Amino acid sequence: MASPNFIENLELQISEIELLDSMFPGDGEFCLDDPSVLSDVQTFVDKSAESTGVADQGISGNSASGKGGTGAIRQLSFSIKISINGHHNGIPNIDLDLQCCLPLDYPNVLPELNVQSNVLSRQQYRILNDDLMEHIESLDRGELCITEAVQWLQENASCYLKTAEVPSQGNVKEQSKKKQQPSSFTRLWIHSHHIYSRSKREDIFAWSKERGLTGFSLPGKPGIICVEGSQGDVDEIWHKLRRLNWKKLTSKHREDFALDADDTELFSTNFSRLRHFSDFQEINFAVRGSRDYHMDLGQFFQYLEKHNCADAFKILLGVDGRVSQKDTS
Fold this sequence. Notes:
The protein is an alpha+beta fold. It has two domains: 4-163, Roll (Ubiquitin Conjugating Enzyme); 181-328, Alpha-Beta Plaits. It has eleven helices and eleven strands. The chain has helices at 4-23, 35-50, 122-137, 146-163, 172-180, 198-210, 231-242, 264-274, 297-306, 312-317, 325-328, and strands at residues 30-32, 76-84, 94-102, 112-116, 184-192, 214-218, 223-230, 249-258, 280-282, 287-288, 294-295. The strands form three sheets. It has a five-stranded mixed β-sheet with strand order 8-5-7-6-9. Strands 1-2-3-4 form a four-stranded antiparallel β-sheet. Mean pLDDT is 80; it is low at 53-68 and 164-181. Residues 15-160 form the RWD domain. InterPro entries: Phi-like, Prp3_C, RWD_dom, RWDD2A-B_C, UBQ-conjugating_enzyme/RWD. It holds the Pfam family RWD. This is RWD domain-containing protein. It comes from Strongylocentrotus purpuratus.
């Protein structure tokens, strides 16, 4: 059966969500990514309470499975729209979108937080998120901290908005040209112990798409991510991924190609030729093992071969790749 500490963590998460829901009652202010997850967690907690005192008895039904009866419990994730009053700093009022994902061991571990706003420059976006996490990391473990994050943003976000770099009309075209013509092409291969979280998977896909990166994300165990594109965009997504909570996340291999941006036509041609992938997508193969979601690595190797990067298989996984027998029969 699940440990008392685990159940207590879930109860605290439920209580914090109820508090946030009451703090942000307006339409669209507080939104659960999947309301059924909260219902499942509440059911799990209720059944655990009913089974208290029954030695060596697991939770029955579909609310949990696997080690300790917690295998099917999914992480709670939600977003909060926070209105920032900027008049005292000489800026308009704006809304920030605080995206939250609660690991099952939260509040004993840090939550995954990400603040988004279309009025922040990329640099200010990074600084704001870094400073927010630095503040959260300074709090005592075991304390609920989403409401603290909201309060910190309400008190401090306007300072970041005031100093955000907003391009003037005179240099918009120049900055746009620089953005379209990066100085180098980069391909990054990332290995994770696992990728299960729905919110992580959605973030990986959305962040890659919005920056025009190509590549793929392979969820399961292990989890693999490949992103390719301009060096600045690749570095940005790697920075954002590292801010999330992972059991283990490693940059296994990086490929950098310097490009001459003076010749626009040649630059564009070379940039396109360096790509192994035509777009970014989440790939899935046959699952081996119903509990740990192991992907069919033979099919993964075949996928890499198809995109002319089979040598990455050994770099990522430490073994030579082989095509699945069922694919050759």
